[in-house]
Write a structure and sequence with these properties.
single chain, 718 residues, Immunoglobulin-like, 8 domains, 8-stranded mixed beta sheet, 6-stranded mixed beta sheet, 1 helix
């Protein structure tokens, strides 16, 4: 539209310029732009402007414009406030033909200065405020630039709703309001542009369509509907259940409100400049307890309870006990009388609309019944039992404050005995008062420990030294339950004597602070019982083979055998090949000696001696064990074994006419070889078949040759 207006004006100016002779009067050939708002810079091009200190003067309608610059042919002017649609006038001389008015118009967007549905009498047009819409009412809009010559397009809106409107003058519009209108600003749009008056509102009738159906005092609820917007927040009032609420309008259709504590079941009442609305349905106010005083008291004490939603209260309980009496002062206050036997607990208020439980506790008088354990040393965990212990603020033992205690529930407190505590009574303090235990908690010192003893065995009358800690306070010592005399020489050393009736077992020390046992049993006895066993394998042995002697030493106790030695004498005619075992023996001639040293009860010592037998014989081997400790049974301190050494015997057995069986001792396997001669007088050759070995004998079954043949065992590497 703007480009078409500009072309029309330029064409008209060009025609006029071509038909007018050159004169000394001002002349505007063109101006640009031809559309704009106040503040727009407009450039006029022509001749005869003759700028002076006071001239030229440029007017938009009747309003003079400020000039940015002026020359004989060009003027730059600022569109002034209050300018209206119309030609531009340039005055270059104060008299005569010194003025020129453009045939074309400068166009401005509409401007709304006021509007209303009811006028107030007077010389000027004034409207009653606030502007309230009613169905079919006429809305008069005043301002400027409503009429655009040759371009009659007009759009008027109230909020987002278009309304039927007619321009009755360049400065006035008449609009008819529809049956329903939303609260909003008035906007006017023409072919040139549009404007919205943001200073005032047209108020439509309010309506609440839905809201939060149930709430407590202090809750924020949502309210939905229409026409909640106001120019000033003070122009809106919302009552919830009869009480004025604090409101936050989020939009024309949505607001939030804080339910007042004074609210009761009832409708929502909304008042705005556009009218009032009362909801047909009611909000339900559930109870809430915000506080009460006093927080403690004996039976018969009257407690004042604050909150909201107390209308319709049917019961008030102190924990599980109903109030002795109750009184509902109003919807925000109630009074309840403390019942007998009250315990620390929350208050519960029951109404026809719901139940409220206090976050704070009403405190009954505390009581201490017992504690477990009844004694302990620093670091011991103790559980105190009683009543009305919730909310405990202090706990002392013999006057010493106990930090870090834990209130388990209304009947238990858990605490730890601190370092430096002394025996005494336990006192607990709560908001409901204080209580002291009748019993005394006994604080024990550190318990004794036993880390070692010397010696670890001995008979009655033996002095035993115990090592450990906290032994100075020991009051009793026992050997496997038998009481013994003792002397504590220091906190870390104690000497005790093995009693006559003691038996093997742990040594226990006792003090008022605890008991401790020795790390291992003390062995009671006067002697050891060492013994030795001896065996030979194989026996009988084969000549030129080997014999293994196995020695086993035992200590049947009860004492440790000291300076223990094991001796073995190799029979004459035999030579030592090797020994096995964990200890290497000393060898002197045919005698081998193992130095075992301390040989504990139930200990076992094993040794092996392998010897070579050079020729057939019968010999006796001897083993002996000795110790410095008295031996209860010296008859088993030695052992002997007789070994027979003989040439191996080859046995031939005819199984059937075509098969024979040959057998000989297994001990001869490595030192003897089976050989065969096909006939008498012929040389012997080794038999290549492998015999079976059952550990005692070698067995070879082979076919006969059909003629006489000879077999023998031949010594290998004699």
């Amino acid at each position: 539209m703007r480009s078409s207006l500009r072309r029309s004006v330029l064409s008209l100016l060009a025609i006029l310029a071509s038909s007018i002779p050159t004169l000394a009067i001002p002349f505007v050939q063109s101006f640009t732009p031809n559309v704009g708002s106040p503040g727009t810079l407009v450039t006029l091009t022509g001749s005869g402007f003759r700028p002076t200190a006071a001239l030229p003067i440029v007017q938009f309608g009747t309003i003079a414009a400020n000039l940015i610059s002026a020359s004989a042919n060009t003027i730059v002017a600022v569109v002034p406030e209050g300018a209206t649609i119309g030609p531009i006038t340039v005055t270059a001389m104060p008299i005569g033909n010194g003025q020129y008015t453009t045939p074309g118009y400068f166009y401005l967007p509409p401007r709304v200065t006021d509007f209303g549905t009811r006028m107030i009498g007077g010389p000027n047009i004034e409207f009653e405020k606030p502007v309230v819409a009613s169905p079919g009412a006429t809305l008069t809009v005043v301002g400027a630039n409503f009429y655009v010559p040759n371009y009659p397009r007009l759009l008027v809106r109230v909020g987002e709703i278009p309304v039927t409107a007619t321009v009755t003058a360049d400065s006035q519009i008449q609009a008819t309001l529809p049956q329903w209108i939303e609260t909003g600003h008035v906007s006017v749009h023409t072919e040139v542009g549009g404007t919205t008056n943001l200073q005032q509102l047209v108020y439509g009738p309010p309506l609440i369509s839905r809201f939060t159906a149930t709430a407590m005092g202090g809750d924020t609820i949502e309210v939905h509907g229409y026409n909640f917007r106001t120019k000033d927040a003070k122009e809106l009032e919302l009552r919830i259940g009869g009480a004025k609420a604090t409101v936050d309008v989020l939009s024309n259709t949505n607001l939030t409100a804080v339910v007042p504590n004074a609210s009761i079941n009832g409708p929502l009442e909304l008042r705005v400049p556009g009218g009032a609305f009362i909801t047909p349905s009611h909000i339900v106010i559930r109870p809430r307890i915000t506080g009460f005083t006093p927080e403690t008291g004996a039976a018969g004490t009257v407690v004042k309870i604050d909150g909201s939603g107390f209308n319709g209260t049917t019961r008030i309980d102190f924990g599980s006990l109903p109030a002795a009496a109750l009184k509902i002062v109003n919807s925000m206050q109630a009074e309840a009388t403390v019942p007998a036997g009250v315990q620390t607990a929350a208050l519960t208020l029951v109404t026809t609309n719901g139940t409220a439980v206090s976050t704070a506790l009403f405190y009954g008088t505390p009581r201490v019944d017992s504690f477990s354990p009844a004694s302990g040393r620093p670091g011991t965990q103790v559980v105190l039992a009683g009543l009305n212990l919730n909310g405990a603020t202090g706990l002392t033992l013999s006057g010493l404050s106990l930090a870090g205690f834990e209130v388990v529930d209304n009947r238990q407190i858990r605490f730890e005995i601190p370092a430096g505590a002394t025996s005494g009574r336990v006192r607990v303090t709560t908001p409901g008062g204080s209580a002291t235990s009748e019993a005394t908690f006994v604080v024990r010192g550190p318990e004794p420990t036993v880390t070692g003893m010397s010696p670890g065995e001995g008979g009655p009358g033996t002095t035993v030294t115990l090592l450990g800690s906290n032994l100075a306070a020991v009051t009793n010592v026992t050997f496997n339950g038998v009481r013994a005399s003792f002397t504590a020489t220091s906190a870390t050393t104690l000497e005790t004597i093995v009693p006559s009736s003691a038996t093997t077992g742990l040594i226990r020390v006792s003090s008022p602070d605890g008991v401790a046992d020795s790390p291992k049993a003390f062995i009671v006895g006067t002697s050891a019982d060492v013994r030795v066993t001896l065996s030979a394998s194989p026996n009988p042995a084969v000549a030129y083979g080997s014999v293994l002697f196995n020695l086993q030493a035992f200590n049947n106790g009860p004492l440790t055998a000291k300076d223990t030695a094991l001796e073995f004498v190799i029979p004459e005619g035999m030579t030592l090949i090797e020994t096995t075992g964990t200890i290497t023996p000393s060898v002197v001639g045919q005698k081998l000696t193992w130095q075992r040293g301390a040989f504990g009860p139930n200990d076992v010592f094993l040794a092996g001696v392998r010897v070579g037998a050079t020729s057939p014989m019968s010999a006796v081997a001897l083993a002996t064990i000795t110790a410095s400790t008295p031996d209860a049974n010296p008859g088993n301190n030695s052992a002997r074994v007789t070994v027979t050494v003989a040439l191996p015997r080859l046995v031939l057995e005819v199984l059937d006419p075509v098969e024979i069986a040959l057998s000989w001792p297994s001990a001869a396997r490595t030192r003897y070889q089976l050989v065969r001669a096909p006939h008498l007088g012929e040389p012997f050759v080794p038999v290549t078949e492998t015999p079976e070995d059952d550990g005692n004998r070698l067995l070879l079954i082979r076919p006969t040759s059909g003629s006489s043949e000879l077999f023998q065992l031949r010594l290998v590497n004699p």
